[in-house]
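dumping the sequnces here before i forget
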Amino acid sequence: MNAHWRYRPEGGSYFAQWLIRTIALYCGRPVARAVLYPVTLYFFLRRRHERQASRAFLHSVLGGPISCAQIFRHMHSFAAVTLDRVYMLARGARGFELEVEGLETLHQTVEQGRGVILVGSHHGSFEALRMLSNRYDKATLRVVLNKQQTPAMTALLEALAPDIGARVIDGSQDPASVVLALGEAVRQGHMVALLADRGRPDESMLQVPFLGRPAAFPMGPWMLAATLRVPVVLCFGLYLGGNRYKLMFESFADPKGLSRQGRMKAVHGYVRDYASRLEKMARTYPYNWFNFYDFWHVPANCKVDADSSGHDLRDGAGVCG
Amino acid sequence: MSTQTEAEHALAELIVESLNLEDVQAGDLDPEAPLFGGDLGLDSIDALEIALAVSKSYGFQLRSDNPDNKQIFASLRALSGHIEQRRAEA
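..and the predicted 3d for all of it:
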């Protein structure tokens, strides 16, 4: 697999991943971090849409006019985290200063033996979870990755962290196999990591307030938790600058004993509460927000949550897709 | 619409009951229509629900590593056929 990357310069993402990996691992973090400045400048100048998205997001959190320096800082923070992902996958927490909060909460949930759904987002570095593995080996971590849509990321994982690669649930299989695999992982008491801030185009979404405007959040992770009646723990991997990261675990929901009739209402509540929690984190750590697109864009077929808008909804509505 | 066999009807009842499908009669399910993404409006989470109900009622697991899953979950007829085959083997 390594050999063909260099013969396929047109495979942009492969080449970029290979380049980042090579610079990162062979030149060391100080050199790679120095390279980040021209790289960030390049993206800052070339990526108008990302620049606009950054400005809009920072404005909604910080208010007032947003300077180019702030946008540059935002993009640089993303570049730094993207680079560090290579180190985290290759050698875990080595070289990083990692602060962990709420590990006891996670542990207590794992101890119940019912599996755990770890909900993360594109706020901060979810890969920071990888740094936990040498501190916490009580439960196996499972991630879902679409091996067809993200071949470069899959290759990176398999090259740098084969133990994780083997436990990846391939999201490009038929949907029934994916959910069955998730169910099996939970029954084995594993921790299943899911991202709950971006939905796939075909996924059911719910619009709830986020930073003052309605935004669409996926319902899938919560439907899964409610159907399997698995406890949910939130995970935030925050980048604090330099080589410092902070992992936070928070007990969020336990659908134990939830009836099927009460499910949709509960799921709406989870989405709303999660959006509100994510909003607080985004306000506290704005430069960790890594959704560089119009997050408030409404998918054509999306409806609004009843409790937050006052709109009348039929049973099971409030959903797009 | 082709007629449901006895086994298909029993499975249709299980699906309607476990998914709490209002306004749908088990007997109205077209055995050859797609279960997911079609008129029934089922999604992948419902596949999980069906799998849980099948394991409860028929005593075996529908597993994620079955390479034929796409085919098995294609229609009521396909799923019922798979279940009958598994029961015959047991």
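Chain B has a mean pLDDT of 90.
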